[in-house]
Amino acid sequence: MKKPEIYPIAKLADLLLVINKSDVTKLGNPRKQATVKAIKIDTTKRVINEPHPLELHLKFNPWEEILDLKERNSYISMLLSLFSKNEILDIEKQLSL
Q: What is the pTM of this model?
């Protein structure tokens, strides 16, 4: 399987916040960042939530930003082990709509 286009940007306990990798360039620009959708994933319960604007997630939860590349890659590997290829593709699809 090709490397997924999902990009974990933040964590909160057993929750991960992922965006589409192509949206990373929009972060930091308030106008563009307002168009970024994010999906909250509960890694313990294996629940994939509906996409919502990134700003809503960041406004109402004390997310810890994932800055380390190794840590980000380990979260991607974990997601690949927890969810099927089709589930990952569905996440990618939801984020790109």
A: 0.92
Q: Where are the domains positioned within the chain?
A: 6-96
Mean pLDDT, consecutive 10-residue segments, the chain of 97 residues?
A: 83 97 93 95 98 93 96 97 96 93
Listed in sequence order, the residues at least 6 apart from 64 whose beta carbon sits closer than 8 Å to its beta carbon are 10, 11, 12
State the Cα angle at 78 between 53 and 8, rounded to 5°: 25
Contacts of 25 (CB under 8 A, 6+ apart): 32
Please tell me the distance from the alpha carbon of residue 79 to that of residue 8, in angstroms, as a whole number: 10
